[in-house]
Amino acid sequence: QVQLVESGGGLVQAGGSLRLSCAASGGTFSSYRMGWFRQPPGKEREWVATITGRGDSTAYVDSVKGRFTVSRDNAKNTVHLQMNSLKPEDTAVYYCAAALPLQRYNYWGQGTQVTVSS
Length: 118
Hints:
The mean pLDDT is 97. Helices cover 0% and strands 52% of the residues. The protein has strands spanning 3-7, 10-13, 18-25, 33-39, 46-51, 58-60, 68-73, 78-83, 92-99, 107-108, 112-117.
């Protein structure tokens, strides 16, 4: 059983930056693929980024490529999402999630709000 806690959300102006963090406990962190998802107001949750257990491969939704960077520190059981050049359309509740290889994401954090003002 893995517990995930996100932090780092807040209010930022368009063009600004935020760094989200997700602290994990209760499992072998490096065994888990970690993902970031977001749910904009009134919309469904969408996938944003993924990083493999060893951190050797990442993937991003097209809308954040070149602006967001996902990273992890397996020694500290944390995963980060560095968000630069933020846009109002990035406003959402951001969630981190964990999955074992070949499995769906089935461990989720409580979410952290990111609001980007224009």
